[in-house]
Amino acid sequence: MIHLRIVTAVSRPENLSRIGSWLALHLDAIRSLEWSWHLYFDMARSCVGGQRCKNRGLDSLQQTDWLYILDDDTLPDSTIFQRFAAIVSDDLTTRAVIFSQRREDGSILHAGPENVAPQHIDIGQAFLRRDFIGAGRIPERYDGDGIFLACILRVEPSRVRFVDEPLSRHNSLRDP
Can you tell me the distance from the alpha carbon of 2 to that of 156, in angstroms, rounded to the nearest whole number? Predict the structure, then answer.
């Protein structure tokens, strides 16, 4: 059984009902996946990019849990969780799965080692196993997600799977 913990830093609570319904619809059918959604509120937007909230979520995970950070203004592609579960089930040594991301303008940010850098790869593209992250934390700055990912994804690149399918979405609440 894959234990997936979805973490959301919340500053736009008006979107939560829609996102929660969408998650239940698409995740409850995946038998190999046990999931939960963890909300960390920052209504004053005191954390740049919600980084402090995301780190609180990271701190609450068990070593064998998988982490997916879902922004409170985003719905990923409906098949991303199914593809993630299939990849992890097929290769038990995998510790990170990175999908390509479709941007608001329709362009694609491709998953690949060349894009593991701040202001390139986005946290919404990444599924990370807690024991792979180690003591890493997301810096409390706007590009902190990219800095965090660049640091941890370079430690054991053989355990990272890059999937060039644009199943991650960036700042879109439109149904995929």
Answer: 21
